[in-house]
Write a structure and sequence with these properties.
By secondary structure, this protein is mostly helical. Helix content is about 20%, strand content about 0%. It comes from Enterobacter asburiae.
Length: about 70
């Protein structure tokens, strides 16, 4: 054992952590929607005209929480 944590360690400086392809300068990742409590979601689902789109990924769906 050499005492080194990594065989080879390379670090690169990037403008963004995730290459999302969004080049719009007006885009603000901190501009998010409103968080809803479970009771608020349930009240919305009571509306027969409501459309609810589940955007959870496979893992979140299997776990049952998001």
């Amino acid at each position: 054992m050499t005492g080194k944590s990594f065989w080879v360690l390379r670090m690169k400086v990037r403008e963004r952590i995730v290459a999302d392809g969004i080049d719009d300068p007006a885009f603000n990742a901190a501009d998010v929607g409103e968080y809803l409590k479970a009771a608020e979601v349930n009240a919305m689902l009571d509306d027969p005209d409501a459309v609810f789109i589940d955007m959870r990924n496979h893992y979140e769906y299997e776990v049952g929480a998001f």
